Amino acid sequence: MKRKIFSINTLATVAIATGLLASCSNDDSSIDPGQEPIENEDGRWITVAAARMGENPGDGNGGTLIYSISSEDAKDPTVSIEPFDNGFIAPSNRTARLQSSEDGNTIFNISYAGDTGGRYTKYNVEGGQNFSEAGSPISISEYVGSAPRWIKLFDGDKTGAAVYVNTQNQFNNNGTPEDESDDFYERTEATMGIVTLDLENSLIKEFKESSIPLSEELEAQGYYFGRIDMPVLNAAGDKLYIGARLSKVDPETGETDRDGEILGAKTIVLDYPSLENPTVITSEVGKGNTNGYRSINAFLVDGSVYQANQGDPNGSHILKIDANNQYDDSYVFNLDEALGVEDAYILAWRPTASGKAVVAYRHAGSAEGVAGAQGYFALVDLEARTAQKIEEIPYSQNFYLFQYQGFVVDGNEVYVTEAPVGENGNIYVIDTETGEVTKGAELVNDEGSHFIGVF
C-alpha cells in the first residue's frame, strides 16, 4: 500500500501567497526573517522539484512546485507524494532556477522572467509544502536582467553568482575594397556582466562588467561569446571559471552563421573576488560549449575542476582544469568511448567528493519522445575515466532530461528523479561506491508535466 505524504495547507492558499509576492514591488524592505530551519531527525531533507506544463508537454513553463520529504521517506517505495497538487509554488514566471544548501535545510531561488524576474529569495525547508521565507528578498535585475543565469558557488553556501553577456556587431563605415559606399563587418563586442550575492545576508557583494577577449583572428572570422553560465571557484578560491558558448556571424554579410567550424571548448577565467582581469583558456581535447544549460556544469573535485562540454562533434567529454588555471589536455574522458554510444550529450551531472558521479545524458540512439530526446543516467568514475549506463532505472522514450537541474549528494549516495513526461515515476538513490540502486518514493505526475530533480 502506498503511504501518501501531504500537508494540511492547500495549494490554493500557497497560490494566494505567491500571487501576493508577485504583485509586490522589488524594493529591499525588511520582512520577518522567520524561524530557524527545522532539523530533520530522519536524515537530510530531500526537496523534489516539479515543472508544470505551459502550452506544450515538457516545456515546464507553467511554473515550478517544490515538496520536501526526509531522506528516509525518499528511499521508501511505499511513500507517495503529489507535488503538483500539494507543492509550494517557487516564484518564477517560467521554470525556477533553484539551488539548495549543502545540508538541504535551505532552498535558494532567483525568479526567472516576468514581473518578479531577477528576485532572489531563500526559504527554510520545513517538510512537505512548508517553506518559510528567510531574510529579505533582493532584486538583481538591474545588474543582470530579469532572466539571470545564476549558480551557487561551493564555498559553504556563502556566495551566489549571476552572469549575462550583451553583444553588438561592429561595422567599419569606411567602405569595402569592392564598394566604398558599403559598411562591412569588423567584429562583435561581447560585454560580460557578473554579480556576486551574499547568500547568508541577502546582499549584493560585487558587480563588474568587462569585455571578453578573443583573438583578432577569431574575431575577424566572426566568432564571439554568445552565452555564458555556470561559474565555479577554483581550489585556491582566487579564480572564478565561467562556462561559455561561442557564436558566429558571416563576416561577408554580418548575418548569423550556424555552419561555422566548432572550435575548442573555452572557459573565461576571472580574478576572485574582484571579478577583474578576464582571460580565456581553450581545451585541446574537447570542442563546443561549456556553459551547460540549467544544471551546474563544472565541479571542484580533489583540487581540480571537472567540466562537461556540450555540442562536441565527437560526443561530450568531461574536461579537467588544474590548479594552474589551465586545461589539463593529458586528461581525456570521452563519453562516446566510455559508454559505447555515438553523439553522447551530457545534459546534467553531479560528482561526489570521491570522484564518482552520476551523469544525465542522451545520445544518437535516443528515441524521440513527446518533449524531446529520451534521457538516461550513467555512473561515472572520474579517476578511472569509465562510465556505465544505470540499468536499474526504467527508461521510457518520454523520459525527458534536457531541463534536469538537481541532484542530491549525501556522502556516497546520489538521489535522482525518474518519471516520463505526464507519467508517474520514483526517486532513485545510487550508491556510487557499490553501484547499488534503491527505488524510492513514488512521484505522482500531472498531464504534460515532468520532474526536474531533487535538492
Can you walk through the features of this model?
Helix content is 8%, strand content 42%. It has six helices and 29 strands. It has helices spanning 11-23, 71-74, 83-86, 141-144, 216-220, 335-339; strands at residues 3-5, 45-51, 64-70, 79-81, 88-90, 97-100, 106-110, 119-125, 131-139, 149-152, 159-172, 184-198, 203-211, 223-233, 239-248, 264-271, 279-287, 298-301, 304-308, 318-321, 345-351, 356-362, 376-381, 386-389, 408-410, 413-418, 425-431, 437-443, 450-454. The strands form seven sheets. The protein has a six-stranded mixed beta sheet, with no helix packed on it. Strands 5-3-2-29 form a four-stranded antiparallel beta sheet. The protein has a four-stranded antiparallel beta sheet with strand order 6-7-8-9, with no helix packed on it. It starts with a strand and ends with a strand.
